[in-house]
Design brief:
The chain has a single domain (3-175), classed as NADH:ubiquinone oxidoreductase Nqo5 subunit (Beta Polymerase, domain 2), CATH 3.30.460. The protein is 21% helix and 25% strand. It has three helices and nine strands. The N and C termini lie far apart (49 Å).
Length: 177
């Protein structure tokens, strides 16, 4: 099934509110899913016999934020966070990328991490991927069975892959810069 066919099927099944857009011309065509619909759509993608996306290859977080004020004028996006899901169907030999767009901060309050429902109940491997995205980008996966840091120590301040992250000079008395 092509990306365009998958997009049409999802829009028919869920409507434009839950499937607000897509970029089918990209090198890796992607379909946008509304944050509150991700578990419902992911379950459909996994279980529908026309799709059978039984494998989550990767899940990552991306921060779209211009770190340099000089570059802000040329920045083509409203600052936001994306959760990107790369899916494959081994049995039907097709793949697709799903994106969920989130505000950089929950309710516009700086320091409050954006939230999206966890898909760890749909694809078990999401458990590890979501922990990494939480740790490095600062995305809270609501309903995750064990959302804790996976790469940084538990007492690490901030999320290192955020564009506005300020690397500390030292950690527990050890110079890290």
């Amino acid at each position: 099934m092509t990306a365009e066919e998958i997009f049409r099927l999802l829009q028919e099944q869920f409507g434009e509110e839950k499937i607000p857009g897509a970029n089918l011309e990209a090198r890796d065509p992607w379909i946008e899913v509304a944050p509150e619909a991700i578990v419902e759509v992911a379950t459909f993608l996994r279980d529908d016999p026309r799709l059978l996306f039984e494998h989550l290859n990767n899940l990552c977080g991306v921060d779209y934020f211009p770190p340099d004020p000089k570059k802000a004028a040329k920045f083509e996006h409203e600052p936001h966070i994306e959760v990107v899901y790369h899916l494959s169907s081994f049995s039907l030999k097709h793949r697709i990328t799903i994106k969920v767009k989130l505000p950089r901060w929950k309710d516009g309050q700086e320091g409050e991490l954006p939230e999206v429902p966890s898909v760890a109940g749909v694809w078990a491997i999401a458990d590890w991927h979501e922990r990494e995205a939480y740790d490095l980008v600062g995305i809270r996966f609501v309903g995750h069975p064990n959302l804790m840091r996976i790469l940084c120590p538990e007492d690490w301040e901030g999320h290192p892959l955020r564009k506005d992250y300020e690397f500390p000079e030292e950690y527990h008395g050890i110079r890290v810069r």
